[in-house]
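Handout, section 3.2

Students often ask what a structure token actually looks like in practice. Rather than define it abstractly, here is a full record for Acyl dehydratase. The first block is the sequence as you would receive it.
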Amino acid sequence: MRSFEDVQELLAAEGADLGATAWRQITQEQVDSFADTTDDHQWIHVDTERAASGPYGGTIAHGMLTLSLVPVMIGETVSVNATYGLHYGFEKVRFTAPVPVGSRIRAHVTVLRTAPVEGGTKATFGVTVEVEGGDKPACVAEDTIVWLT
């Protein structure tokens, strides 16, 4: 984890490679809970019997579930001494490979852009979510967070 003493230090970190998070396993329970929360009960995510004979040989995580884990994974790679941080938004989100239930994912994070804002710093992170043993990333996105003092 890279720790920044203040928002000014983060501002100067444009281009920094923050490394990768620890691996985390995606469970059917997580996928089912996400399906209940979002009302997205497509069989490829929640019907283990039908999905077993589907294109991926089992259920897969929702792309949006994977994306929703990105801010948490960024938090595993960066710490900013600020009063609080606000999620500003995602850009250039692509889901390039499935995340099979039971697989493990991690994120590789870089600081793409920084900019001063009133009372803080806005930072855009490049995030590549990998599936352990996979050929392609599951998700590639840019996530912007504003840290305020």
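Discussion prompt for tutorial groups: The first strand starts at residue 2 and ends at 4. How would you have guessed this from the sequence alone?
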